[in-house]
Amino acid sequence: MLKTFASLLPLFLSLAMAQQLVLTHVTVIDATGARAQPDMSVTITGNRISAIGRSGQSAAPRDAQVVDATGKFLIPGLWDMHVHPRDKEYLGLFIANGITGIRVMWGSPDHYASRKSIEAGQLIGPHMTIASPIVDGPVLYWPGSIGVADEAQARRAVDQAKQFGADFVKIYQNLPRDLFFAIADEAKKQGIPFAGHVPLSVTAEEASDAGQRSFEHLVGVLPACSNHSDELLKGQQADLADGIAAGKVKFWGTHVRQSRKMMLDTYSPEKAAALSALLKRNGTWQCPTLTLLHMFAYGDDPAFRNDSRLKYIPASDKASWDPAKVDGMRTAEDFAFSRSEFQRDLEVVGTMQKAGVGILAGTDAGNPFCFPGFGLHDELGFLVQAGLTPMQALQAATSNPARFLGKEKDLGTVQPGKIADLVLLDANPLEDIGNTRKIAAVIYGGQLLPRAMLNTILARTEALANRKPVSETMLATLQQKGVDAAVQQYRDLEAAEPAAYDFSENQLITLGYQLIRMKRFKDAIEVFKLAVEVYPKSYNTYDSLAEAYMDAGDQKSAIANYRQSLTLNPGNQNAVRMLKKLAAQ
Known about the structure:
alpha/beta, Serine Threonine Protein Phosphatase 5, Tetratricopeptide repeat, eight-stranded mixed beta sheet, six-stranded parallel beta sheet, globular
């Protein structure tokens, strides 16, 4: 039978039994910008670096675990500063790739639960900084986002994010101007950062001046670097107004699509330099997620389909990983434009780095071909393509995130007193940034995870990813024998073959919504009732069951389940909206 991650924890913890860990004869790359320091000894006591000195100058403590790291290179643990993690069972992919911290860009109760389990030593995964749910305008691009339609709602969204424990507010691009500035003002009053997309309604300069902590994906940057920036802004605002009026917003509106070539043709190095100076002055960071932008540009390349890392991605995710369908159907013309845009993106990132703008390495893991864990090494390569030195790229994933998060006293560099989140490499990343992939071991909170342990994590994740989707098996049974037989089949398979099928919550939710689309509402109710039974602490299961009851015309049951969803997650704005709608009927 396949081992669970819980069964791996004793092995994980047993690797840290020594009171002290000493790495000898290692080359230290501390990420401060200093030269590599060869033949060093690094002593770790508990979860912190206690000493760094020349090898041989002092004897290791008697009870220490000593690792001869001759020929190895030690760097700080890496951070991926823009991720959308899947199920908690896949968080090990980050650790196995040397990523000891992540910034979650759409927070949910599941993420807080995972963070608590990680901190308690009950789950293998990275440190987590967690956003609020996405806060967007009155018409949502992503279902489940928090929609705000007036200033009071905008300010309340900030307050709720803080009360719920979010580390920062995540904003999206369909916010009208007045609501964006209301959020910016309230975030300042509440003392909570806000970050995300630059809304279509404002300029990059305005967003920076308003205190937006980071821009994601360079949204709003290239329009601000155009000699026709005023015209481009008016087009964006027109698209937003059209989308709100139509009740359906688009990522690429008509005006933006018509002017995108002009945006590139009118790129101004002078305006790029002026914008960079402003961003530096305001302390506005950039998380360009070049991995995502590269997928948009080159996703029509058949090589994407043959990537060996796909074996770590669940079948249900891989089935939807079609770059041609991201943000609507993408044509050959779209890909050609995106390739030109990507080259300009690389140029502007290089310009910003030279101007001293803070750059954060992030991948948007969770999107097609933005691989959790593995993708950060792609990102470092793209940053070097953009003109960063290998050291600067390394800092974008180490010391820069520590500074950005206000954790530079504890994280980001290899120095005495810092938390011992470290990566031991087989080759020098300052000679070739691709060498960050050549991981000999990871040290996480002072615990040594040798290559064999990392391989075990990868093998376990691969096995998880290649389980059969139980939703597909249940749907076939449901169509032939009815929903009761399908529900019983789930129970029987879970008892008899727990390692062969994917029994995750998402499987039941996916099946339930398939049935809703087929207008088989009673069947959907039974599937969602099973989801509630198996995952009773998930607000999403109750929210989904409520929707199925509503579609079936059972308002009383819908109200009861929306209320239960809100009890589990007071920040579930969809439940708030639906309860108001039901109350008005």
